[in-house]
Design goal:
With 282 residues, this protein is mainly β. It folds into two domains: 145 residues, no CATH class; 110 residues, Beta Barrel (Cyclophilin), CATH 2.40.100.10. Helix content is 11%, strand content 32%. The protein contains four helices and 20 strands. The longest helix has 9 residues. The chain is elongated and about 60 Å long. 42% of the residues are buried. This is KipI antagonist. Pfam families: CT_A_B. One of its GO terms (molecular function) is ATP binding.
């Protein structure tokens, strides 16, 4: 078991998502940065869809009561095991009474903690992803216990190294496809979207990211239609909204872009004030 000493800003257990319930209005949820989460599991020889801990900006403090092996990927939040600084993308042996803690955010925005065998939290609608109204809690709370498997696997010293491409975390370029209503935009609007930088507003979370800059908009609302994580909506006031993993399943705003999977991963690692540029994929 793992005891949560401090929960961090917003720490949740996530897997790759909850599928097959969107007709009931249930969001997909799942990890915001799929690349980082999948790598965290693969390095431990877990299934790609094993549950991980997603930590946002500020990490928790966790007390381990079992032998196991862990791995950290994604954002660098100055992780320490007891008093020893840790590096991302490395296997780390953990013993009972060890405490994992985090400090200053150095890079990115969301960090992922995988554990050998995955986190064994409750399964709701075929997923362990935390979400309000579906799971008991929508995030970690102080005093929570997380069930994990006991593993006495020995780590051997190896000379081999693994180079992980994390350039998407730093890049301001976000790849997108045309959305269903993109063609309704004027040529001037399309050029403005593709030739200007936009900045992340302080309204950003697992449901959606809003951008600070407005786009002059005279489009009419559409009939309520399906939306997905990565759908970019344009509101009547000209606000640009990028839907993320916990987004609703339908919406009535024009859908001007659809982010690629890597585009979603990149946005997930952005924080307030950082700039992005939309890159239209053919």
């Amino acid at each position: 078991m793992i005891k949560v000493l401090k929960p961090g800003l917003f720490s949740t257990v996530q897997d790759l998502g909850r599928f097959g319930y969107q007709d009931l209005g249930v969001p997909y949820s799942g990890v915001m940065d799929m690349q980082a989460a999948k790598i965290a599991n693969v390095l431990l020889n877990n299934r790609e869809d094993s549950a991980v801990l997603e930590m946002t900006m500020t990490g928790p403090a966790l007390h381990f009561n079992a032998h196991t092996i862990i791995c950290l990927t994604g954002a660098d939040i100055s992780a320490k095991l007891n008093s020893k600084a840790l590096s991302n993308y490395e296997l780390i042996k953990v013993q009972p009474n060890d405490v994992l803690s985090f400090g200053a955010l150095k890079k990115g925005f969301r960090c992922y903690l995988s554990i050998m065998g995955g986190f064994k939290t409750e399964i709701c609608m075929q997923s362990r992803s935390m979400y309000t109204g579906v799971t008991s809690n929508n995030r970690l709370l102080k005093g929570d216990y997380l069930e994990v498997e006991e593993n006495h696997v020995m780590l051997s010293n190896k000379n081999a190294g693994l180079k992980i491409d994390t350039t998407y975390m730093d890049s301001s370029i976000v790849d997108v496809f045309r959305g269903p209503e993109f063609h309704l935009l004027s040529k001037e609007q399309q050029e403005e979207l593709l030739n200007n930088d936009f900045s992340i507003s302080n309204y950003n979370n697992r449901m959606a990211y809003q951008l600070n800059e407005l786009l002059d908009n005279n489009l009419s609302p559409i009939i309520t239609s399906p939306v997905l994580p990565g759908t970019v909506q344009l509101t009547p006031s000209g606000k640009i909204i990028i839907l993320m993993r916990d987004c609703q399943t339908t919406g009535g705003y024009p859908r001007i872009f659809q982010l690629t999977v890597q585009g979603i991963n990149s946005i997930a690692q952005k924080r307030t004030g950082q700039n992005i540029t939309f890159n239209l994929r053919k």
